[in-house]
Design a protein that fits this description.
The protein is an alpha/beta fold. The protein folds into two domains: about 250 residues, no CATH class; about 250 residues, Carbon-nitrogen hydrolase (Nitrilase/N-carbamoyl-D-aminoacid amidohydrolase, 4-Layer Sandwich). It contains 16 helices and 14 strands. The strands form three sheets. Strands 6-5-4-3-2-13 form a six-stranded mixed β-sheet. The longest helix is centred in the first third of the chain and has 33 residues. The relative contact order is 0.13.
């Protein structure tokens, strides 16, 4: 009877511990950048998984850990739904909670997958914690990044981007195997740490085994530090003067017709004060292109030509109704205005419920009021803009969360530009978290990333992922800086995510092939 009572209580404590570990893991990401806490969070998760005997308990622990991570990490979803989407308080809170539950399903599936493989193949603790468990964890991170349009927020590889009080050496692998590769190495480090804690008590490894494990951790991290010093790209031409505009227009005013003139004048004034060859305005800085007066666009063009360069303007393009009838095509776009011929980029990766509604879910709009919620995606074969004497690859909003998609315009592109409107999320961590996406894309491609946003973070990021200069959030201003266009091809640009997917599969195959028991895998302590 005592055992029957204690087991549920013990399992409940494990769930609470997993939830807390997930929540604390948010400190590894921006704006905190305390990356070692990410390892601690994963260590708790892996240790709990390793001590779990059934798939459903492993999934419950993974779900609790994921729920803690996302409830603490992405509460700004509520701000966009209620404050700016006009969804009632209770519905917005429920929707945010359910969305976090949906995200928590992915670590739950990782735990269940690992435990099922353990039951089938019976591999050792070393194979489990070092190979199979990290692979399962990252596989489901990857699936979360593309399933149902994808939501790759808080992928643990991002915690290694520069910005914290201490250098994170694993980021050196980003140009080789991308963010998911960094996440995998981080997960393997956590697995080794769990093994070492067991080894300290003499349960698994001999002294020689402990020495080899510690040496492996040091070697992997040392190689990452060395890789970070290597330049995967080279300068392409002279430095370029760039101006990144931050209009700081309140989201509740942005789409009001009576505020259109004020918004246009806001950005016109900022642009006309700049002498930069390349000027970048944020996403939808000009609300609707066909309503913008022709003399306004002519003024922007004249100023850009005086500077000997071009401006990239975020806008919404509404095309004419097709001859055969139907609805006009509406795109979230960027256009170039200035010395070069007019060019246009249409956003390819749209935001679910923000820019398009999945089939059968249009009823959501009876509670959610978002302007232009039914947009069209751009082509996937769009090329870099040839402006200001360089090839510039544009991406809009959270498109910079998808490394393989950004890499499509490489190696032709010499600079990357992100145009965003983060006012949707208020004064939250969303802007800082998305800036980490831009940092990782700069690392993966070996290019500078320039971010022009409505309310922040407006920043210039070099090819090492370092934020060189940034404007304070929620102020109106211009960030002027000299940037270095670059050329060359990193391994990630060439192969994208295929190598890491192959390595994850290989880790599963090797781990499942190692069926020996713990005593056969390592000598007595």
């Amino acid at each position: 009877m005592t055992r029957a009572v204690l087991l549920p209580a013990k399992f409940a404590f494990q769930l609470v511990l997993a939830f807390a570990a997930g929540g604390v893991g948010v400190l590894a990401f921006a704006p905190f950048y305390l990356w070692p806490i990410g390892i601690v969070s994963l260590c708790f998760l892996f240790a709990l998984w390793h001590r779990t005997a059934t798939a459903w308990r492993a999934s419950a622990i993974g779900f609790a850990w994921g729920l803690g991570l996302f409830l603490v990490g992405v509460p700004w979803i509520y701000v966009s739904l209620h404050v700016y989407g006009s969804m009632p308080v209770i519905l917005a809170a429920i929707a945010t909670f359910l969305f976090c539950c949906y995200l928590a399903v992915f670590p739950a599936l990782a735990g269940a997958m690992h435990r099922r493989l353990v039951a089938i193949f019976g591999f050792s603790a070393i194979a489990s914690l070092l190979l199979v468990m990290p692979a399962c964890f990252v596989i489901w991170e990857y699936v979360r990044g593309w399933f149902f349009s994808g939501f790759p927020w808080l992928v643990f590889g991002y915690s290694q981007t520069p910005g914290g009080p201490a250098f994170a050496p694993l980021v050196g692998y980003a140009p080789v195997i991308g963010v998911f590769g960094v996440s995998w190495l981080l997960a393997m480090t956590a697995g080794l740490c769990v093994l070492l804690t067991r080894a300290v008590s003499g349960m698994v490894w001999s002294r020689r085994g402990r020495f080899l494990a510690i040496s492996a951790i040091i070697s992997v991290w040392a190689i990452g530090g060395a890789l970070h010093q290597y330049s995967w790209s080279v300068p392409s031409g002279a430095p370029l003067t760039v101006a990144l505009l931050q209009g700081n227009i309140e989201q509740s005013l942005k789409w009001r017709e009576d505020q259109l003139v004020s918004s246009l004048n806001n950005y016109r004034e900022l642009l006309e004060k700049s002498t930069a060859r390349l000027i970048v305005l944020p996403e939808t800085a000009l609300p609707v292109l066909r309503e913008v007066p022709a003399d306004y666009l002519a003024a922007l063009k004249r100023r850009s030509e005086m500077n000997g360069g071009d401006a990239i303007v975020g806008t919404v393009v509404v095309e004419s109704v097709p001859a055969g009838g139907g609805f006009p095509k509406i795109t979230n776009s960027a256009i170039s205005i200035g010395s070069s011929p007019l060019q246009r980029y249409d956003k390819q990766h749209l935001v679910v419920f923000g820019e398009f509604i999945p089939p059968l879910l249009s009823w959501v709009y009876q509670w959610l009021k978002i302007p232009l919620g039914s947009m069209d995606a751009g082509r996937t074969d769009q090329k870099p803009m040839q402006i200001a004497g360089h090839a510039v690859a544009v991406n809009i909003c959270y498109e910079d969360a998808f490394g393989a998609e950004i890499a499509r315009q490489l190696p032709e592109a010499e600079l990357l530009v992100n145009m965003s409107n983060m006012a949707w999320f208020g004064n939250s961590s969303a802007s800082d978290q998305q800036t980490q996406f831009s940092q990782m894309r700069a690392l993966e491609t070996g290019r500078w990333m320039l971010r022009s946003t409505n309310t922040g973070v407006t920043a210039s990021i070099n090819e090492k992922g370092e934020i060189i200069k940034a404007l304070p959030q929620f102020v109106r201003g211009t960030l002027e800086i000299k940037v270095q266009p670059r050329s060359g091809t990193t391994p990630y640009v060439r192969w994208k995510d295929w190598p890491i997917l192959g390595l994850l599969l290989l880790a599963l195959v090797i781990g499942c092939a190692l069926k020996s028991a713990d005593r056969q895998s390592a000598g007595p302590a």
